[in-house]
Write the structure tokens for this entry.
Amino acid sequence: MMSLILMVLFLIPMILIMHSSILFQYFYIIMYMYMLLYKSPSSIFSSISYMLGLDYFSYGFMLLTFLISSYMIISMMNFSNNFLYFMLLNLMMTFFLVIIFSSMNFLYMYISFEFILIPLIILILGWGYQPERLMAGMYLFFYTVLVSLPLLLLIMYMYMYCGSMFFGYMVFSSENFLIHFILIVVFMVKMPMYLTHYWLPKAHVQAPVSGSMILAALMLKIGGYGFIRVMYMYEYMLVKYSYIWFTFGIVGSLFISIICLIQGDIKCLVAYSSVAHMGMVLCGLMTMNTWGILGSYFLMIAHGFCSSGLFYICNLFYIRTMSRSFFINKGLINFMPTCCMFFFMLCAFNMSCPPSLNFVSELMILPSLMNFWSYSMYFFIGISFFSACFSYYLYSFSQHGLYHNLYTFSMINLLEFLCLFMHLFPLFLIPVFISTLM
């Protein structure tokens, strides 16, 4: 693992080379292939060094990190201003995400968990669109810091109690609900859970396209990944109080799915749909059985590609029409016909149509939900129905209708087609790979 981290660090001199974005792409792909071929978690932990290592959960998120970081560079190639500074921020976020997803030490994970907030806020403030980005950055900062400072005190207390900060040794048996709440709520805010989600639409709408991509694809997954890590070291209290978080997840997903239907901003609708999907992830994790946890894990991977692709294609519409409103972005099937198929497939996968990874993951989550609480099936049907409604609403309102300029042409370049294809391709490929393993 140290070799992989050093590979990321030694990319810093590449920033000094002008127009080195293509070289960055090559090196990210090299690291991706290195992970894929030589760092496979064939044992329980692989390549443990300096409190770092990989297991099956962190392996998928590491691969997702390198792919999304590469897509971010493609998405910002049209922005010529301060592109080298953007690549530095991209490299910093990649470095901290590698530390988060590979650390076996709780303190390492916590420090990287907090440090990644700095380049993300700089990205929102420096490359955001409207003046409201200042308030969005404040929302993101204070929501995270408010719940993270008590966690630092709790980590020091747990070190005194357990004598170690390794996840494998931190087995905690306290019955204090306050400790349970502090340990859980920090990851719930990051997911985000319903009622702690208000920072997400603000940050998504005001962030540039690369900021929205990394927020949707990776930042939300830190919450789910951290929750999986905490689950194994604090099982008793989680079994005892899981119904609380399960209720927030399943009711919140239903409410947010209805709220999506009244949005007038395309980017805001995609942001709220992320909250609904992460609510399903939370419900699957709360069941604490094999199918629920694996289904949530696959849903996080699938949502990372699908939501990132939706934000990217919405930004393509925004660049050309200079608006994100549903009332202006109409008739885009005439304005940009070559994007219609990609947008349709992303919307279809967003509502978990087969043969996507989203469909496989929700098919795994459903029996675990019914095993946890039989009446959750009715909530699941409602969530699936409204998810289909807002995905159809997103596609039909923007693609159909009369475009205000009344002419037809397509101006999507090959690089943008490549980025859209690379968002969709893993959603087809991973279910095939899973079926071959089974």
Observations:
- The mean pLDDT is 85.
- Residues 1-436 form one domain.
